[in-house]
Structure formats: C-alpha cells, structure tokens
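Form 7-S
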Amino acid sequence: MRFEINRRMKTKKFGERVYYFERVTSTMDIARELAEKDEPEGTVVVAETQTTGRGRFQREWYSPPGGVYFSLILRPAFLAENVPKINFLAAVAVAETLKELYRLNVKTKWPNDILVGEKKICGILTEAGMEGKKLKWVILGIGINANFEIKKLGKTIIPATSLKEELKKEVSLEELLQRLFERLESNYLRVKKEGFAWLLKRWKTFSDTLGRNVKVQTSEGIFLGKALDINSDGALVLRLSNGKKKKILAGDCYHLRKKGG
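Output:
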C-alpha cells in the first residue's frame, strides 16, 4: 500500500517533499544522497520495506512490510556536538505521538529506543555530514514496528513488540506519519528557539532507564551501575559500584532490573 500523507498536515517543511519507495536498500542511504545534492530541510524518504535497513553500529534493522521506515533531512545551524541530542528529539516526538494516538504506556530507553511494556517498538538513528568543521546536514532515521506480527522480525537482541500486537488491530500508517511529522517539526522548531534543556527534561518524563541498574557497553569497556540522570550533553550518568559517577555519551544500554531495584 502506498503511503499518502495528508496534505492538510500542519507542518511548514517536514513532509512537504516526500520520496516514496515500495522497496529500498535503506532510506538512510537515499536520504544521504539527496542531502548531498542539496535537497531542502524537511525532505523525507519513506519505504514500505528495506532490504538492508540498519540501526546503530551498522546493525541490521529488519524491515518487513507493514512497518514505518523513513529518513528525514535536517539542516540545523547548531554545533556538531549537539547532533546526538537529535535522538532525544525524535524519541520524545515518537513517544508523544504513540501515547496521544493509541493511549499506550510508552517509555524511552537511553540512548535511542522506544519501549512499550519493556519491549522495543521503535528505533532511531542519526547520521551527520560535515563540511570542514561545519555541520552540513543531519539524517534522522526512524523505524516503527506497526502493522505486523513480531515473529516476522525473527530473532532480536532485545524483546520487541509492534502496534498490531499491542492494540490487537492495524493502524493507519498515513495518520501515524502525519501526526509524527507534525510533532517532530514542532519540537524541532522549539529546540532551535529555546535550546535542548526543555527537551532533555521532557525525555526524562518518559524514561524507563533512569533509576534502573544497567549495563552499558562502550568503546572503553562495560560499565555496571545505577542510571542516575541524563546531563546537558545527553550523556547517561551512572553511579558505579565503587560510588563514583561515570558519564557515558555513547554505548549500548541494557536494563538489568525493574526500576528502583
């Protein structure tokens, strides 16, 4: 089924120009090519399936028919060091949209996952292009498990779910995209005006990571501790077993116990 995004969508740029594909290798690859050809901010690449979709660290992202897979071109004026915070912008937008549309108990997991019932329902990926020291573009990729049974994903690293399994019915992908683009643009414009502080605070209200004992795998090694906070850089702040605090900007986070455990 071809995506038809409602033209009454209340956005200024996001989704104004849409490249639709039934099947692609990866929407991220196509969006990068378009970004390098100076496609405007807000351009979206949407696909019904991806043959080589990917997540963080080049992991494969399974993309069966019935999901939502898109990449959005951004051209922010902020410094490159702020690019990782785009993950938080996307996570908040997705969480707000799924909660508002479907009344789901949506949670965020540091750094870039969306959970329902402690199962992953959405993944987020950001990639940036530089011109010297200047940020040229950012590609924001989002994949949402929507109208398919989770068994179609095969074996996953962490437990997964889908909107169809949670709601016991299929949803309108057009409505989901429309509302999500509106929320993404609204939050993005607010970040450009006010900065990221309010966004990180909002992310914390959805967090299923803070307050938990976690294991974080990084390029430095593996760290075990209690997730205390997200700092202004978007780094996860852990209290290690020796009582010291550790700030981690990037890594894989695994929840070990229930919150408060």
